[in-house]
Amino acid sequence: MTLYVYLVVFPESVKTPAHWAVLITPVENGKVGQEFQAIGSPFHGYNLEVKEEFDLSKEFKKHSCVFLGSLGDSWKSQLAGVAQSVASPGISSTPLDPFAVRLSYRQRNYLRILFSLLKAELTFIATG
C-alpha cells in the first residue's frame, strides 16, 4: 500500500503568513487521512497536533493542496514519532511580528524530514 503526502496551505491575509498542515492519505487525491500541524500562538508557544482521521472535505476554510510525494505504508507507524521529534518554537520574543519564527518554522523542519524519507523511499524503489 502507498501513502500519499500533501502539504495543505490555508492562506490567511496579506499581512499574515499562511497556515500549513501535512496530510497523509492512503489513496491518491484523498481527503481523509492523518493530519499533522502545529497549533498555538507566539504568546504561548506551539505544540504538535496529530489527527488520525482528518477529513479535508469537511474543512470550510479556503485551502489548497500540494502533492509532495508518496511513501510505502511501512512508514505509517513512524510518521507521528518523526513529527514529535521536531522541536516547536517556544514563546516568541516578538509576538506581534507576523513574520517572526512561528509554527511554519516547525512545519518546514518536519517537511525537511519528510523529504528525506521520500528521497530514501525513491532511492529504495530505484535500486530495489
From TrEMBL:
It holds the Pfam family DUF6540. This is Uncharacterized protein. It comes from Arthroderma benhamiae (strain ATCC MYA-4681 / CBS 112371) (Trichophyton mentagrophytes).
